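# nightly structure sweep
# worker-07 picked up a monomer target from the shared queue
# config: single-sequence mode, recycle default, output format = structure tokens
# input follows
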Amino acid sequence: MEDFRRQGFSSVGGQPCKRYIMLASISPPRMTRLERLLILTLVIGCVTLFSGAVAQDGYGYDTTATPTANVTPAAEANVTITSPEEGATVAAGNVTVTVNLTNFTLVEPINQSNAPGEGHLHYYLDAPVPTNASAPAIPETGGYVISTNTSYTWENVTPGEHNFSVQVVNNDHTPIIPLVYDTVNVTVGGNVTGNATVVNLTAENIAFDTDTITVPAGANVTVHFVNKDDGIPHNFAVYDSSLRSEQIFVGDIITGPAETNYTFTAPSEPGTYYFQCDVHPSMNGDFIVE
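# output follows
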């Protein structure tokens, strides 16, 4: 009795309370090894079934593999000098370099970020083509100009051997990589006689950009003609007067947008002649020979 009281048990009528006797006498049931194995097997089975259901359902997400699309890379830019040709001999004075550019859009390099497939051109005279991809394409020697046109006229080129080049560059003036450029070696002067004169003429909105052209008498004239009128044909022709009694030169008709070079010899007699577009005679002006 003292033992029960000492251990915190109470008594009723001098006997230990039955409730406490029962609690004191009952020990927790012990699981057999077989029972533990069966419970473990059941748990593993449930986990396996649940995982299979999740994998099949995908928790509402489409788990079907998506085939990778075939992406065709953009065509590489290309530039070729069409005039003058490699090894050509041209007259001293003004020399026009004309190029053919494909798979590239020319944009003004003003506050423009670099973008694939667009930029501008650098024309070089007697200069090595820059190759540093991280620096602006500015040669250490020779001449260079920045342009968004497919032609450029070098003025007052002296007689002798000269190298003309053109390079495609990014908006920040760094070279396109891989490098895109062309170069030709030309003899200026040589056996060519007479004065060489280049005239730039543009047709846009059914009008020429000038109504007066002046050239030296007997000059070898090159008219670099640009037709900017989309789908509209134009040409350049020179006559003795607006009556067109005598034909001096008639250029081929080209449909815009396009450009070409017309080459002919100016009259040897000074005077005021007449030029026009034969398709649109309202496009005309004075062709002055001095």
